[in-house]
């Protein structure tokens, strides 16, 4: 909600993880949490849970532009933050930005991506961020008031 995202999908092939996510969403949108913290419930009304990327894309209208994230640059597929933000603002196609966890997006998912967002680069050789941190940095670069960063 901070960045005005319309919809967020959580994709996991693990049925138990989908069930847990569904229970948490229900708690904050319909259960006790909806009365305790209604704003959190409003945010979680924008979350959907699916078993796979194909199932997620099946729910989308049009021909979405699928963009992935990675800690590695993908020559020939890399898109900078400003260019990506410009594509979103043009609204010619729905846009999906995929984040991975643990070992990142699978090769099969990366192959489905038309573009790969420029990686976040630190000063050192070690290049790994938790999903929460990477999401915050990337969403700020795309939708934040200071604008995108390409370098």
Topology, element by element:
Elements: E1 8-11, H1 15-29, H2 32-36, H3 38-44, E2 47-50, H4 53-58, E3 65-68, E4 78-79, H5 81-90, E5 95-98, H6 107-112, E6 115-117, H7 131-143
Parallel strand pairs: 1-2, 3-5, 3-6, 4-6
Helix pairs in contact: 1-3, 5-7
Question: What report would you give on this structure?
Answer:
The protein has 151 residues and is of the alpha/beta class. It has 2 domains: 1-59, no CATH class; 61-151, Alpha/beta knot (3-Layer(aba) Sandwich). The chain has helices at residues 15-29, 32-36, 38-44, 53-58, 81-90, 107-112, 131-143, and strands at residues 8-11, 47-50, 65-68, 78-79, 95-98, 115-117. The longest helix has 15 residues, at 15-29. The protein is globular. The model has no long low-confidence stretch (mean pLDDT 91).
Characterize this entry briefly:
This protein is of the alpha/beta class and 151 residues long. The protein is built from seven helices and six strands; from the N terminus they run βαααβαββαβαβα.
Determine the CATH topology of the largest domain: Alpha/beta knot
Order of helices and strands: EHHHEHEEHEHEH
Tell me the domain tally: 2
General form: globular
CATH homologous superfamily caption of the largest domain: SPOUT methyltransferase, trefoil knot domain
Q: If strands are numbered along the chain, what order do they take across the biggest sheet? A: 4-6-3-5
User: What structural class do the secondary elements suggest?
Assistant: alpha/beta
The helix content, as a percent range, equals 40-55%
Mean pLDDT: 91
Radius of gyration: 16 Å
For the largest beta-sheet, the strand count, sense and barrel status come to: 4 strands, parallel
Query: Could you tell me the strand content as a percent range?
Result: 5-15%
